[in-house]
Design goal:
- By secondary structure, this protein is α/β, with parallel strands linked by helices.
- The chain is 42% helix and 15% strand.
- The chain is built from five helices and seven strands.
- The chain has a five-stranded mixed sheet, sandwiched between helices.
- Helix 3 links the parallel strand 2 and strand 3.
- Helix 1 crosses helix 3 and helix 4 runs parallel beside helix 5.
- The longest helix is centred in the middle third of the chain and has 19 residues.
Length: 130
C-alpha cells in the first residue's frame, strides 16, 4: 500500500474517537509501560458492495497502527452506523471513521469527538453544511 493511501486511511479511521463514561476492560486494565491503553478497538462498517476490499484495507490499517502505536489493534465490524454508535456508547469501539450525520449522532449519544478530518494543505479541512 502506498504512503498517501496509508495516510488517507489513517486520517479517515482517526476521524472519530468514541468516548463513553462507562468503565470497560480497557479502562480498568493497568496501562502499558509507555502509558498507553492495552489495545485500540478500531470500528468499521463495510459497504455491502465492497466488503472484501473494506475488510482488507481495515486489516492493513490495523497492522500499520499496531506497528506505529506499539499496541494491539482489534477490528470491530458493525453492520451499519447505528450499531457502531451503540458500540461506542458501551465503550466497545475506541476509534472509527464516520460520515457527517453519523458523527453528529455519535457526538450526542456517545460523547464522540472528532480528532482528525480530511482535507488538503492549501484548502484546510473539508467541511459539510446542511
Amino acid at each position: 500500500m502506498n504512503s498517501p493511501l496509508v495516510l488517507a486511511l489513517l486520517a479517515l479511521a482517526l476521524l472519530l474517537a468514541g468516548c463513553s463514561g462507562r468503565a470497560t476492560e480497557a479502562d480498568t486494565a493497568p496501562p502499558s509501560v509507555n502509558g498507553r491503553p492495552g489495545r485500540l478497538r478500531l470500528g468499521y462498517t463495510p459497504s455491502e458492495e465492497l466488503v472484501a476490499d473494506r475488510e482488507q484495507s481495515q486489516a492493513e490499517l490495523a497492522r500499520y497502527l499496531e506497528r506505529t502505536l506499539g499496541i494491539p489493534v482489534e477490528l470491530v465490524r458493525t453492520a451499519s452506523y447505528g450499531p457502531a454508535i451503540e458500540a461506542m456508547e458501551r465503550g466497545d469501539i475506541d476509534v472509527m471513521s464516520l460520515g457527517p450525520f453519523a458523527y453528529v449522532l455519535a457526538a450526542k449519544r456517545a460523547a464522540a469527538e472528532a480528532i482528525a478530518t480530511t482535507g488538503r494543505p492549501g484548502d484546510g479541512p473539508r467541511t459539510y453544511q446542511s
